[in-house]
Amino acid sequence: MRIRIEATRVYIAAGIAILASVLGLPADSAVAAFSDRSRPEATAIRYLPSLGETQVAARIDQALCLAFSLPQEWRRVPAGNGAALHLAAATGDGAIEIAFRSMRDLMELPQADPITRDAAFLQRDHEGVFGRPAQASSLESVPGATRWTATWIDGNLPSSTHMLTLETYIVRASPDWMLEISISDIDDRDTYDTLVQRVLANLQTADPARCGRPG
């Protein structure tokens, strides 16, 4: 999830911890609230120097594998905050989190379609953790996804604007699964937008056998 504290982007876990601290909430409990997202059964990550790209494939279940490529070298890193797949750029400039949300989690929500249900689920989760509603939120269609954003304002936040904004791209991967894609640790907006477009443009389903063994 993209988190903005003025011009700074940090990992979702760090952002939650910051806001939890400001609001007087236990940070461990706040981060743990997002651990119900499903983890992939297997992941294959391969850097191809000749192409200057990293190929990623993740098997969500026996019938679905998701594949995409990233520019330059990326590595999988531990994701203690419940994100299903967490990648970091080898240069240290950029992080990607992809959460896999089962449609079963969304069945009881009243919204008319899966995308708005997932957005409502995200909104409810975060407002529950932060203990207050967001001062602003939006849901916008973009090529290949729907972008959800929510902003909290608090005088104790460490920025001149005292604002924190979360941003996630929601994709329906199959009738049974939703993706929640978040990118962080990229300060330049053009670079950020280019990476978002790259991920969304080449994200595809693939033969589950392609996913290989867990990475």
Automatic annotation (TrEMBL):
It comes from the Bacteria. This is Uncharacterized protein. It comes from Microvirga brassicacearum. The lineage of its organism: Bacteria, Pseudomonadati, Pseudomonadota, Alphaproteobacteria, Hyphomicrobiales.
